[in-house]
Amino acid sequence: MKQTQAIDCVEPEYAKQLDPTPEIFPVTYSILSPTCLAKEVQSDYPLCPPVTCDPLHLGLNDTYLIHTGNEPYVLRIYRFDWRSSEDVLYELDLLKHLHGRGILVAIPVTRRNGQLVRFLPAPEGIRMAVLFTYAAGKRPTETAPYVHLLGQTIGQLHAAGEDFTSPHTRFPLDLEYFLDHPQQALRPILAHRSSDWDDLVAVVEEVRTRAKQIPMTGLQRGVCHGDIDWKNLHIADDGGITLFDFDNGGAGWHAFDLATFRIRAPNDAVWNEFLDGYQTERTIDSRDLRAVPLFMVMLRIYMLGFVATHRHTTPWGAAMLRNGFVESELAFLREWMRTRE
Questions:
Q1: Is 86:170 a contact under the CB 8 Å cutoff?
Q2: What's the maximum distance between 2 C-alpha atoms anywhere in the chain?
Q3: Fewer CB atoms near the end CB (10 Å): N or C, the chain?
Q4: How much helix, strand and coil, in percent to the nearest 5, is found in the chain?
Q5: Is the predicted pLDDT of residue 8 greater than 70, yes or no?
Q6: pTM score, two decimals?
Q7: Which residues pair with 241 in a beta bridge?
Q8: Nearest to 186 by CA among 321, 335, 322
Q9: Are residues 109 and 189 in the same domain?
Q10: Could you report the per-residue pLDDT of 87-135, keeping only the tens digit for each?
């Protein structure tokens, strides 16, 4: 491989010595031009001009707000080497299914050629692009009526997903996803911290043992959103909640989905309000409720692995490792091991 050469702007004479066609230095993440994306979207979709594009959130995946002559849309650019095309097509099938069952979700927009996904040759590799409808309304306040409504909406989502099928495959939300992959990602981080590594291994094995004791095969399974958070929904003036960002969703335990909200609920009153709303649409078995705290521990392990996985590809991944995230989460897991019933 030809060695990449860098230009030092304070030594202009050095630039004359460079290969006239130097190899581009490898990148792990690029920010695609909003101006060029607007042009591509305008030519690729039957939208009302003029079409403009503004960054909305640049993170794991990048999202852009697409303005048109009549209504807005959201363009998601999936990160390279994060999701497979099968994963994404499964997600889009799920959104279309939920929409057909009356669940308010941001749905994919069909391109002029009849396809839903476009593949863009970014510097780091091929990145997938999907245009979604815009979720009407705005992020709600975390007050009791909205908490109840959110619980009701998730109950409707779980019920609507009972008959969902897709010809595409997607990663399962199973114990390998919650425990094995994170543990593998954390191994290089804790390579020289044998005590921390031993503690993590002990927690993972304890969680696995408890999962067998439940047993997990007796829990309700089906479609999950994967990240029930206020940042992933808008509420319209008529009170309808529209869900978006199913990037972490898929087939899994419903108790896991509930745990993604429980871990963020500030107190028991909010959690109980959410459950009251949920159970207006769907009954929660007592075994599923008892499993929620264990899934909350799994989520802490998963998030540790998530940050470790993206430490070289996202600024926030590296920052969280530097800012004591691993230490604080390991402290929580040690305390859980000490006080577990």
A1: yes
A2: 74
A3: C
A4: 45, 15, 40
A5: no
A6: 0.90
A7: 235
A8: 321
A9: no
A10: 999 999 999 999 999 999 999 999 999 999 999 999 999 999 999 999 9
